Amino acid sequence: MTRVLVLVPFPLSETDIAHRRDKTHEVALRPGVTFDFRPVAAGPSSFMSPHDWALMDLALFEAGLSAETDGYDAVVIDTVSDSGADALRSMLDIPVLAPGRASLLFALGLGRRFGILAQWEPALARYHKVIDEWGFADHCAGVEHFDTPPDFAALIGDKADDVLPRMEAACRRLVDGGADVICLGSTTMHQAHAYLSEALDVPVVNPGPLSYKLIEGLLA
Q1: Cβ atoms within 10 A of the Cβ of 187, count?
Q2: Most buried pick, 20, 72, 207, 219, via CB within 10 A?
Q3: Local structure of 81: helix, strand or coil
Q4: What's the rounded Cα separation, in Å, for the pair 182 and 141?
Q5: What are the tens digits of pLDDT across the range 18-42?
Q6: Could you give the CA distance from residue 220 to residue 214 in angstroms, rounded to a whole number?
């Protein structure tokens, strides 16, 4: 049995973690690989500033540091901020997959320029930061948000009728701006993937489920 530890970036209850665990049902995963979800013990409530980013790095580093001795074969970070990934890679001898950079690299296998769908305006700074740091500026057609404060526990939940059309409108702005692939800017957006894939004429990259398939391939 192959075991993968998925690090959840908030100290959520088991009920709330179940919303994130649903992502494992959105792709066909091979038998013999199990995904266990572990929340951080404590951390910031959001990702709005460098202060938050630093605390999130520490929270996820602490949550994943024992993964290898706990018997896991790999670690997946359950946030496109990739928080804690570099620090964990420096300490562990098992793969640590970070879905943010991985999803953008994957997008470049599908098209020439990607657009990133963000949750709301305060999140934009983080996306522009990583685009510059990772060297993706020439490949990014833009970042658009759908003006909805994130709910890191319930995710989209019962807000679908209001939120999904706004997500679609933001994606269409990205396509009009030159994006031929859309990257969902959070692993919490996975519930919108089916709707957006049906509504849009370009591929939509879903970073959470993608990260499970990528780590499955690495381990194979």
Answers
A1: 28
A2: 207
A3: coil
A4: 10
A5: 878 877 887 888 888 999 999 999 9
A6: 10
